[in-house]
C-alpha cells in the first residue's frame, strides 16, 4: 500500500470528523513523505499546522494509520509540501478517492486574494423554505453593500449551506464590481493569522490589511469564543469597517446570544444588524439539491432513487451529497446503474443507523460544552443567569431524551426539588415552542449529543 493511499484514508476520516473549514485549514497540503517499520513522517506546509497536528490531532492520526499499519508507533511532522516529493511519487491521482479529488479540485479554484471558491454561486444554491430568508438577505446585501443588513449574521447547524451562501455573496460582489476588495476567512484561520502576527510583532500590519476591505466575511465566528486577543482585533476591525459603511458578514452554528465566552460588546455588534437562520431542508428542497448535484456530476439517476435518498437522509446537505456520491461511485465502478433495491441495500448501513440511547452524563457534558461553562457548575447553587439557563436546558433535555423522572433529574443536578425541575422543564418547553432562537439552541445541543454517540 502506497504512502498516499494510507494518507488518503486518514484524510477521509478527518474530513468526516471535522467541519469543512477546520479540515481545509489543518490538512490542506499535507502528505506522508516517508515511513519505516514503526514511524510515519508527514509533510506540513508551515509551523503552525505542524504544532496543531502534533498537539490536537496526533492521537486520531495514529489511530487511523494503525488500522492499516498496526506496527506504527509514532507519527512525526516536518515542514514541506507535496511539491517536494520525488518525481516517482507525484503522479498519485489514480490512487485518490473521489471525495479527496473533489477537495483538491475545489482548492485549485480558490482565489488566492479573496479566498473565495468560484464554484460557490447563487445559481448553484437551492433555495427552500429553510433558507429563503438568509438567501434573500444575502442578495439584498450584494445590491446595497454596507447600507442594509450590516452586519449580516447567518446561523444554523452543520452542513446546511452557510459557507456556500457566504461565498456566493462574496463571488457575486466581485462579479458585479471587480474593484471591490473582498475577503472570506474562517475564524480558525483568522486566529492562526493573529497568533502569527503577535509572534512576528506585526499586529498593526495585519489589522491594516483587513481594514482596507469593502467586504469582510468570517465563517464559523463561534470559534472565537474565549479567545480574547482574537475578539479584540475583530472588535477593532468591525468598528473601523462599520464606520466607513463597509459590509461585514458572519456565519455561526448558533445565534449570537448562545455563543459562550463572547464579549458583550461583540455580541451587541453581531445583533445590531440582520440575523437569519438556516434550518434543515424539507423533502422538496432535499430532492431539488440531489437533482442539481447529480446533474453537476453528469449522472442521470432515476428519480425514485433520488427520492429514496431524500426521504431517508434528513440531517444535513453534506450527508445528503455523501449518500449520492456513494451511489454514483458504485455505478461507475461496475459500469451499470443500480436499481432501487440495490441502492437501498448499498446505503443500508449509511442511512439506517440504529437508534442509540444517550446517557445523562453525555447530555450534561454536551450542555456544558455548548454554553462554555464547567460541568460542575450545573450542579452548583449559583443563581447567575449564565448558569441558571444552561441548568434549565439540561433539565429539559434529561426529561426529553432519557425519560428520567423529575426527582431523578433533581438528584443529578445538585439535589434539587422535583418542583424546581418541573418549572425548568415547562419553561424551556414553552420557549422551544414559541422562541425560534431557543428552538435552534435545543437542536444544536441535540446534534452534539448524538454526534458524540456516533463517534
TrEMBL record:
A GO biological-process term: regulation of DNA replication
Residue span(s) of domain Chromosomal replication initiator DnaA C-terminal: 359-428
Chief localisation class: cytoplasm
Positions of the UniProt region annotated as Domain I, interacts with DnaA modulators: 1-106
Keywords: ATP-binding, Cytoplasm, DNA replication, DNA-binding, Lipid-binding, Nucleotide-binding
Gene3D superfamilies (alphabetical): 1.10.1750.10, 1.10.8.60, 3.30.300.180, P-loop containing nucleotide triphosphate hydrolases (3.40.50.300)
InterPro entries: AAA+_ATPase, Chromosome_initiator_DnaA, Chromosome_initiator_DnaA-like, Chromosome_initiator_DnaA_CS, DnaA_C, DnaA_dom, DnaA_N_dom, DnaA_N_sf
UniProt superkingdom: Bacteria
UniProt GO MF annotations: ATP binding; DNA replication origin binding; lipid binding
Residues that, per the record, bind ATP: 159, 161-163
Family from the record: Belongs to the DnaA family.
Free-text comment on this protein's domains from its UniProt entry: Domain I is involved in oligomerization and binding regulators, domain II is flexibile and of varying length in different bacteria, domain III forms the AAA+ region, while domain IV binds dsDNA.
Subunit description: Oligomerizes as a right-handed, spiral filament on DNA at oriC.
Protein task: Plays an essential role in the initiation and regulation of chromosomal replication. ATP-DnaA binds to the origin of replication (oriC) to initiate formation of the DNA replication initiation complex once per cell cycle. Binds the DnaA box (a 9 base pair repeat at the origin) and separates the double-stranded (ds)DNA. Forms a right-handed helical filament on oriC DNA; dsDNA binds to the exterior of the filament while single-stranded (ss)DNA is stabiized in the filament's interior.
Protein name: Chromosomal replication initiator protein DnaA
Source species of the chain: Candidatus Yanofskybacteria bacterium RIFCSPHIGHO2_12_FULL_45_19b
Amino acid at each position: 500500500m502506497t504512502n498516499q493511499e494510507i494518507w488518503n484514508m486518514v484524510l477521509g476520516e478527518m474530513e468526516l470528523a471535522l467541519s469543512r473549514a477546520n479540515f481545509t485549514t489543518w490538512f490542506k497540503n499535507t502528505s506522508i513523505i516517508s515511513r519505516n517499520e514503526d514511524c510515519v513522517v508527514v509533510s506540513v506546509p508551515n509551523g503552525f499546522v505542524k504544532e496543531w497536528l502534533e498537539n490536537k490531532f496526533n492521537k486520531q492520526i495514529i489511530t487511523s494509520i494503525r488500522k492499516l499499519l498496526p506496527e506504527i508507533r509514532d507519527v512525526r511532522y516536518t515542514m514541506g509540501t507535496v511539491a517536494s516529493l520525488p518525481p516517482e511519487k507525484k503522479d498519485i491521482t489514480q490512487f485518490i478517492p473521489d471525495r479527496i479529488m473533489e477537495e483538491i479540485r475545489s482548492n485549485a479554484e480558490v482565489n488566492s486574494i479573496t479566498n473565495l471558491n468560484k464554484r460557490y454561486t447563487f445559481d448553484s444554491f437551492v433555495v427552500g423554505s429553510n433558507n429563503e430568508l438568509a438567501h434573500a438577505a444575502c442578495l439584498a446585501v450584494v445590491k446595497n453593500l454596507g447600507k442594509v443588513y450590516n452586519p449580516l449574521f447567518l446561523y444554523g447547524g452543520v452542513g446546511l449551506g452557510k459557507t456556500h451562501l457566504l461565498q456566493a455573496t462574496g463571488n457575486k460582489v466581485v462579479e458585479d464590481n471587480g474593484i471591490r476588495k473582498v475577503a472570506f476567512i474562517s475564524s480558525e484561520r483568522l486566529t492562526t493569522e493573529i497568533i502569527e502576527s503577535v509572534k512576528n510583532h506585526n499586529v498593526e500590519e495585519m489589522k491594516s490589511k483587513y481594514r482596507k476591505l469593502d467586504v469582510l466575511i468570517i465563517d464559523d465566528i463561534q470559534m472565537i469564543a474565549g479567545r480574547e486577543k482574537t475578539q479584540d482585533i475583530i472588535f477593532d476591525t468591525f468598528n473601523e469597517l462599520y464606520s466607513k459603511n463597509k459590509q461585514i458578514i458572519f456565519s455561526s452554528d448558533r445565534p449570537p446570544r448562545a455563543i459562550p465566552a463572547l464579549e458583550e460588546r461583540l455580541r451587541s455588534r453581531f445583533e445590531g444588524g440582520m440575523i437569519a437562520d438556516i434550518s434543515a431542508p424539507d423533502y422538496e428542497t432535499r430532492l431539488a439539491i440531489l437533482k442539481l448535484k447529480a446533474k453537476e456530476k453528469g449522472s442521470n439517476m432515476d428519480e425514485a432513487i433520488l427520492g429514496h435518498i431524500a426521504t431517508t437522509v434528513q440531517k444535513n446537505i453534506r450527508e445528503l451529497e455523501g449518500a449520492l456520491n456513494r451511489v454514483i461511485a458504485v455505478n461507475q465502478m461496475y459500469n451499470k446503474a443500480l436499481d432501487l433495491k440495490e441502492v437501498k441495500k448499498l446505503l443500508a448501513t449509511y442511512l439506517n443507523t440504529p437508534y442509540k440511547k444517550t446517557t445523562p452524563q453525555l447530555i450534561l457534558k454536551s450542555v456544558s460544552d455548548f454554553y462554555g461553562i464547567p460541568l460542575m457548575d450545573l450542579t452548583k447553587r449559583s443563581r447567575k443567569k449564565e448558569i441558571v439557563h444552561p441548568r434549565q436546558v439540561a433539565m429539559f433535555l434529561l426529561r426529553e431524551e432519557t425519560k428520567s423522572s423529575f426527582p431523578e433529574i433533581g438528584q443529578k443536578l445538585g439535589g434539587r426539588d422535583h418542583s424546581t425541575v418541573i418549572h425548568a422543564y415547562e419553561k424551556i418547553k414553552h420557549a422551544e415552542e414559541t422562541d425560534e432562537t431557543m428552538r435552534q439552541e435545543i437542536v444544536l445541543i441535540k446534534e452534539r449529543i448524538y454526534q458524540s454517540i456516533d463517534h
